[in-house]
Write a sequence for this structure.
């Protein structure tokens, strides 16, 4: 997948390398970025997807690759396991905070599904597992601060921004420690109380040159998402605030980071329809101790790149031939909800992803072991090859454009006969739009996604030879919905409606950008 960096022809001999926002045309919401030496790391929200909370790495703030995840699973309740009709769509783990302090990396994240907050620690965030501590309360959109005096705080909340003190090792709430509102009614910087829509939230706290800065977002009624900044000379002192980013496109929510040479940038995000919430990088200047984003709070059209890296590349999504030596997958993949490790393999039949059913499911949203990857824009295409030898009556296997209003093309077994079926769930429940007989065991599916100019359309195809493609069913009008709270995903799936124990083999997953 290519970046949006490009050469700007100014008519002069030398060309200045510039970039455009969003820097990545895919779903990476709630970014939090730190710098350690000359390397940047970023965490993001992936809700109900596991493994959870991706850690991404960059050397130029523009090109990113996934290098690890913070956890495999948060819990094993019915919600995470998709049991008894329960799920954690739109819940899971929310906005995380990534920090580095005295040789240790910290990641804090809360979960609306478990009503808890989790503090993870590791000395090597690229290779090691993370040690976990649990706070038995959900602290909304929290941000972690290690102060110069050795005290540790979580800043969190909405409307009123609060702070609570942690123990020095950041593993628990400090008994008798600070617990107070530090910024009352933070939203009022942007609008009168009666005009506040979304109250201030999404806190990011940083201490810079003796000031404590708290970045939040608010959303005035009849307005757009707006970035705020408050500052104080003492952590629990009096904070003064102002609007930091007032971009009509709603670019907001995030913190700031510096380069080794002293420049500053804000990593925020913007909404981009069904493709999701996408990271935006804004240059930051300082005036009288206040950070000034972009051009007086507006995202400029073209910006000079922070660091020139000839060899940088993105690796957030990727094709996969499923050739592995053990049952592990490329980091670009995430499972929908908790994985059943006994019901999938890439070694049972080398070169194939095999999914096996373990329960009866009414529809795709309830299916276990659905494997997902982000779609990306402006336009993308992905295709798969599926072998159906092991499928039983009532089984459905295939390829989906997955969100609440999903669509898929797949194979369904009915009375020992196999049918190629296109299903559209956007009416509120899955509807079979078109179905045709399948007389062979191998079939190919393709989904094209068009996010350009907010078209948000998905188109479904099948092939009997992998070369000649046939449209099937209807186009899907993709919609970003808070039910799932993620951008559309490509999904490989297999579930049973009548009897368990069958299997489906996926030969490959191949994706590419489409010409605009």
């Amino acid at each position: 997948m290519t970046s949006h960096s490009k050469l700007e022809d100014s008519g002069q001999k030398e060309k200045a390398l510039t970039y455009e926002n969003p820097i990545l045309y895919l779903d990476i919401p709630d970014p939090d970025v730190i710098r350690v030496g000359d390397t940047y790391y970023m965490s993001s929200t992936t809700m109900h997807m596991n493994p959870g909370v991706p850690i991404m790495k960059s050397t130029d703030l523009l090109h990113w690759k996934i290098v690890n995840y913070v956890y495999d699973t948060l819990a094993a309740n019915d919600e995470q396991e998709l049991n008894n009709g329960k799920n954690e769509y739109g819940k899971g783990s929310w906005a995380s905070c990534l920090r580095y302090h005295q040789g240790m990396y910290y990641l804090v994240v809360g979960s609306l599904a478990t009503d808890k907050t989790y503090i993870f620690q590791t000395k090597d965030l690229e290779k090691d597992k993370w040690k976990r501590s649990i706070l038995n309360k959900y602290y909304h959109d929290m941000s972690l601060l290690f102060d110069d005096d050795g005290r540790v705080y979580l800043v969190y909340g909405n409307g009123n921004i609060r702070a609570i003190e942690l123990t020095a090792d950041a593993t628990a709430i400090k008994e008798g420690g600070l617990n107070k509102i530090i910024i009352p009614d933070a939203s009022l910087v942007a609008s009168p109380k009666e005009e506040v829509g979304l109250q201030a939230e999404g806190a990011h706290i940083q201490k810079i040159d003796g000031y404590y800065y708290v970045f939040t977002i608010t959303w005035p009624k009849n307005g757009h998402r707006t970035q705020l900044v408050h500052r104080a000379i003492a952590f629990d002192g009096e904070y003064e605030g102002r609007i930091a980013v007032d971009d009509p496109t709603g670019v907001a929510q995030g913190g700031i980071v510096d380069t080794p040479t002293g420049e500053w940038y804000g990593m925020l995000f913007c909404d981009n329809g069904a493709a999701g919430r996408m990271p935006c990088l804004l240059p930051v200047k300082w005036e009288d101790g206040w950070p000034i984003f972009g051009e007086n709070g507006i995202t400029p059209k073209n910006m000079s790149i922070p660091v020139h890296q000839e060899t940088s590349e993105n690796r957030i999504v990727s094709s996969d031939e499923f050739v592995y030596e053990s049952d592990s997958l490329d980091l670009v993949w995430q499972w929908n909800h908790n994985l059943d490790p006994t019901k999938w393999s890439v070694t049972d039949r080398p070169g194939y992803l095999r999914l096996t059913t373990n329960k009866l499911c009414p529809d795709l949203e309830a299916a276990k072991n659905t494997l997902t990857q982000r779609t990306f824009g402006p336009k993308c295409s992905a295709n798969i090859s599926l072998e159906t030898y092991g499928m039983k009556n009532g089984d459905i296997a295939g390829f989906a454009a997955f969100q609440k209003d999903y669509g898929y093309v797949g194979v369904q077994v009915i009375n020992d006969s196999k049918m190629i079926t296109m299903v559209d769930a956007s009416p509120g429940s899955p509807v079979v739009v078109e179905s045709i007989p399948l007389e062979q065991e191998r079939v190919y599916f393709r989904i094209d996604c068009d996010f350009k100019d907010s078209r948000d359309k998905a188109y479904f195809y099948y092939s009997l030879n992998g070369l000649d493609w046939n449209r099937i069913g209807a186009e899907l009008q993709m919609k970003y919905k808070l039910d799932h709270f993620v951008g559309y995903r490509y999904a490989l799936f297999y579930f049973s409606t009548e009897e368990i124990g069958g299997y489906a083999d996926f030969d490959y997953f191949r994706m590419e950008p489409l010409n605009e």
Summary: The first strand starts at residue 6 and ends at 8. Helices lie at 78-81. DSSP finds one helix and 39 strands in the chain. The chain has two domains: 6-304, 334-513.
